[in-house]
Amino acid sequence: MARDPSFAATVRRWEDNLSDYEDPYTDPKARLRLQAHFPVLVTKRSFSRELAAAGRCWNSISFWRAMCAMLVFGIVTYAAFQSGWLAL
Prior knowledge:
It comes from Rhizobium wenxiniae. Keywords: Membrane, Transmembrane, Transmembrane helix. This is Anti-sigma-K factor RskA. By secondary structure, this protein is an all-alpha fold. The chain has two domains: 44 residues, no CATH class; 44 residues.
């Protein structure tokens, strides 16, 4: 490795990429168990998290398609009642 700098760089890159595997094991269900028993301690309301959830809805194509469908339905219904085609 001392004579080949490109090989040394490759080894360093691999060590950096694989260094996460040396971390100690953490139980992924531990947080879920804690949340099930003590939900107040684990879940803290965050304005940024709520804003992100609202942004997902606002930027959702499904949301806008549903809004357009409701708008078109409302306009057609209004026009039908105004023209007398649908009279009560």
